[in-house]
TrEMBL record:
Gene3D superfamilies: 3.40.1190.20. Its cofactor is Mg(2+). This is ADP-dependent (S)-NAD(P)H-hydrate dehydratase. It comes from Rheinheimera aquimaris. AMP binds at K190, G191, Q192, H193, S194, G219.
Length: 280
């Protein structure tokens, strides 16, 4: 069935993120648990946690390798970082973000086996997607749920659909819809004019973003933004679409001020807070 393509714009922000109630406390805005950062990849998980904190989540925790804990705390002490008590951390979280820097090894796989069966809202990126691609169709179907966001780049999308990356890029609309049908929830297919397909036949396209964003860690920051929006109560489609718009619009502001070349993923955090609050 063909879906109408919606364009995400600033109106979505007004509609989906109204002013906070005056009596609000941190418990109103959810608790994101970031799971990632195997040896050598701590930065990805740290950037995702930092982006979630900067995007309005009430609380953010990070489960990672012991060697990354002090880097996280010195960079952003608001994040609760731990390398033990995974089950307790999973129980306390309201939203799970898994994948950035998680790696392909047994450490990450064991964590995924535990968290994928949770029915809490989830965002899966990077190595969590690569793991999903290794499961049988029956296992993939068993793990589907509507409040889950998958954020593949075209290389990851190709692994999920078991086809060449060129086939994804050849027909991105068909690819995002096929991913959504096969894996359920919402799928955001990254790249120029990212596409978002949701569980109720929704389809949206971003017109923001620029090639300055082609730098390592940019997707990790996107995952943190979307997870924070899930934590604030948005459904998977709205969180992915609005998160993608905030991410691309922040990058466009930076590119207009400073140019595209040399844009870094953590730079996105600078304009992000103003954008989130409707101040451009
Ligand atoms: N600071 C840190 O700690 C950082 C850590 N990171 C962590 O590193 C881990 C590996 O993640 P990754 O994305 O680099 O590896 P991977 O999926 O194998 O991609 C390479 C392959 O996929 C393809 N491909 C990639 N992008 C594509 C695109 N847009 N469009 C099309 N194709 C694309 C590409 O194909 P190529 O074009 O090169 O032929 C190549 O085959 C992961 O844990 C991540 O979280 C990163 O987040 C960076 C910052
Ligand atoms: N040329 C481009 N135009 C618009 N957006 C882009 C472009 N290149 C990259 N991006 C965006 O930057 C992000 C890159 O994510 P990803 O490939 O997962 O990076 P990483 O794995 O390094 O974090 C995605 O949100 C993608 O849509």
């Amino acid at each position: 069935m063909s879906r109408t393509i919606q364009t995400v714009d600033a109106q979505w922000l007004k509609r989906l993120l109204p002013r906070r109630p005056a009596q609000a406390h941190k418990g109103y805005f959810g608790h994101v648990l970031v799971v990632g950062g195997d040896h050598g990849y701590g930065g990805a998980a740290i950037m995702a946690a930092q982006a979630a904190a900067r995007s309005g989540a009430g609380l953010v925790s990070l489960y990672t390798r012991q060697e990354h804990i002090s880097a996280m705390l010195s960079r952003q002490p608001e994040v609760m970082a731990n390398h033990q008590h995974f089950t307790t951390m999973l129980d306390r979280a309201t939203v799970i973000l898994a994948g950035p820097g998680l790696g392909p090894d047994s450490w990450g796989k064991a964590l995924l086996a535990q968290l994928l069966v949770s029915n809490k809202p989830q965002l899966l990126d990077a190595d969590a997607l690569n793991y999903l691609a290794t499961l049988s169709t029956a296992e993939q179907q068993q793990l589907q749920h509507d409040n889950r966001v998958l954020t593949p780049h075209p290389g990851e999308a190709a692994r999920l659909l078991n086809c060449p990356t060129a086939a994804i890029e050849h027909d991105r609309i068909a690819a995002v819809q096929q991913l959504q049908q096969q894996f359920g929830g919402t799928v955001l297919l990254k790249g120029q004019h990212s596409l978002i397909a949701g569980p109720k036949q929704q389809l949206a396209r971003l017109s923001c973003g620029n090639p300055g964003m082609a730098s390592g860690g940019m997707g990790d920051v996107l995952s943190g933004i979307i997870a924070a929006l899930l934590a604030q109560g948005l459904n998977s489609f709205d969180a992915a679409a609005l998160g993608g718009w905030l991410h691309g619009s922040a990058a466009d502001q930076l590119a207009a001020e400073r140019g595209e070349r040399g844009l870094l993923a953590t730079d996105i955090l600078l304009p992000l807070q103003k954008l989130l609050n409707g101040k451009t």
